[in-house]
From TrEMBL:
Subunit structure: Homodimer.
One GO MF term: pyridoxal phosphate binding
Cofactor: pyridoxal 5'-phosphate
UniProt EC number: 2.6.1.9
Native species: Thermomonospora cellulosilytica
Gene3D superfamilies assigned to the protein according to its UniProt record, in alphabetical order: Aspartate Aminotransferase, domain 1, Type I PLP-dependent aspartate aminotransferase-like (Major domain)
Gene Ontology biological process terms, A to Z: L-histidine biosynthetic process
Residues recorded with modification N6-(pyridoxal phosphate)lysine: 219
SUPFAM superfamilies with a match to the protein in the record: PLP-dependent transferases
Name the UniProt record assigns to this protein: Histidinol-phosphate aminotransferase
Compositional bias segments (type: Basic and acidic residues): 1-8
C-alpha cells in the first residue's frame, strides 16, 4: 500500500530500565489481595475456555455503567449505553470505522494524543489538524471556526489532554457540540485524575446523542496490561459499533479480570490522590528549576523548553530514567511515578540539565 510507505509503527520505547516514566502507566501494581481475587476469577473462567466469551460483554458493560454513574451521577447510564473493547485505542478505532472511513473527515486540536490521527489514517479517514492555544487550552471561538470551515464527521477532544495535561471546561465542549455536524468524541483516558471541582463530559451525555465519552482502565485503574477501554454514548452509537467490531473481540479472561478490578475500584482509585499530590510536588520542583511547566490535571507533566530535547532525554536515559519525547518540539513529558521514582527523576534531571547546558 503506497499510503503506508514512509510511516513508522507506534514506537514508545519499551526499555528495561529502572525508572519507566514514559507511557503514563500507574506505578502501583495490584495489591496481594487483588492479585488473589484476579487469580480466582481467571481460574473460574479457565474451566470454560473451550467456549467463546459473551460476545456482547453485557455483565462487564453493566459494571462499567455502574462505575460511571458513581463518577458522574447525572449520566444515568445502563449497559445499553456503554461499550468496551481492547483498550481505548481499539474503542477509537471502532468509532472511526463506524463514523469515519474513506470520504469522511476527522478533526483534532494539536498538540494532542498521537494515536487519533494515526488511527484516522489506518481507517482511511482524512485527518485535519486544528490548533490549541499557546497555553494548550482551547479557544471556543477558534475551535468553532475550525469546525465550520472543515465540517468534520468526527471531532476529537481530549480532556485532560495528552501530552499537555490540560482539562477542558464543559462550556468549551458544549460550544464544539453545538457547532459540530457529526460525532464529538471526548477522550477521557485520564478523566479520573481531573480536579474535584471540574466535571466530566459524561454530564452532557443525556442532552447530546452525538457525544461519545471514552475512558480506559489503563491509567487511574492501574490495569494497562488488561487492555480494557470503554465508552459511554447514545444506544444508536453502540448499535453502529456492533456492526464494525470483530466477533468475540473481548476474551473471557479480559472480561473476568476487568470485572474483578471494577469490584476493587475504590482500592485501585486510591492511588489517584497520591499521584495528584506527587504531581503537584513535581510541578513545583520543575518550576523551581526555572523550567516552563504546563498545568496538568493528569498523571503526567509536560515541561521545557529545550533547544535540543533529545540530548536531555538521552542524558536522563543514561541515568536509568526513561521519559518521553512527545508534544511540541522543545518539550518533554514525564509520567508521575512513586515518590522514590520521582526522587530518581529529580536527581537525573538535575545532572542532565548541567550536562546539556
Ligand atoms: N487516549 C489517550 C489520551 C491516551 O493517552 C491513551 C494512552 O496513553 C489512550 C487513549 C489509549 O489507552 P488504552 O488503549 O491503554 O486504553
Amino acid at each position: 500500500r503506497d499510503d503506508l510507505r514512509g510511516r513508522e509503527p507506534y514506537g514508545a520505547p519499551q526499555l528495561d530500565v529502572p525508572v519507566r516514566l514514559n507511557t503514563n502507566e500507574n506505578p502501583y501494581p495490584p495489591s496481594p489481595e487483588l492479585v488473589k481475587a484476579l487469580g480466582d476469577a481467571v481460574a473460574e473462567v479457565a474451566s470454560s475456555l473451550n467456549r467463546y466469551p459473551d460476545r456482547d460483554a453485557v455483565a462487564l458493560r453493566a459494571d462499567l455503567a455502574d462505575f460511571l454513574n458513581r463518577d458522574t451521577p447525572g449520566a444515568d447510564l445502563t449497559a445499553e449505553r456503554v461499550w468496551a473493547a481492547n483498550g481505548s485505542n481499539e474503542v477509537i478505532q471502532q468509532i472511526l470505522q463506524a463514523f469515519g472511513g474513506p470520504g469522511r473527515t476527522a478533526l483534532g486540536f494539536e498538540p494532542s494524543y498521537s494515536m487519533h490521527p494515526i488511527i484516522a489514517h489506518v481507517t482511511g479517514t482524512r485527518w485535519i489538524n486544528a490548533q490549541r492555544d499557546e497555553d494548550f487550552g482551547l479557544d471556543p471561538g477558534k475551535a468553532v471556526a475550525a469546525i465550520e470551515e472543515h465540517r468534520p464527521d468526527v471531532v476529537f477532544l481530549t480532556s485532560p489532554n495528552n501530552p499537555t495535561g490540560t482539562a477542558l471546561p464543559l462550556e468549551a465542549i458544549e460550544a464544539v457540540l453545538a457547532a459540530a455536524p457529526g460525532m464529538v468524541v471526548v477522550d477521557e483516558a485520564y478523566g479520573e485524575f481531573r480536579r474535584e471541582d471540574t466535571l466530566s463530559a459524561l454530564e452532557l451525555l443525556p442532552e447530546h446523542p452525538r457525544l461519545i465519552v471514552t475512558r480506559t482502565m489503563s491509567k487511574a485503574f492501574a490495569m494497562a496490561g488488561t487492555r480494557l477501554g470503554y465508552l459511554a454514548a447514545d444506544p444508536a452509537v453502540i448499535e453502529a459499533l456492533l456492526l464494525v467490531r470483530l466477533p468475540y473481540h473481548l476474551s473471557s479472561v479480559t472480561q473476568a479480570v476487568a470485572r474483578t478490578a471494577l469490584a476493587y475500584a475504590d482500592e485501585l482509585l486510591g492511588s489517584v490522590d497520591t499521584l495528584r499530590a506527587e504531581r503537584d510536588l513535581l510541578v513545583g520542583w520543575l518550576r523551581s528549576q526555572g523550567l516552563r511547566v504546563a498545568d496538568s490535571d493528569a498523571n503526567f507533566v509536560l515541561f521545557g523548553t529545550f533547544p535540543d530535547r533529545r540530548r536531555v532525554w538521552q542524558a536522563m536515559l543514561d541515568r536509568g530514567v526513561l521519559i518521553r519525547e512527545v508534544g511540541p518540539p522543545q518539550w518533554l513529558r514525564v509520567t508521575v511515578g512513586t515518590s522514590a521514582e520521582m526522587a530518581a527523576f529529580r536527581s537525573a534531571l538535575t545532572t542532565a540539565l548541567k550536562e546539556t547546558q
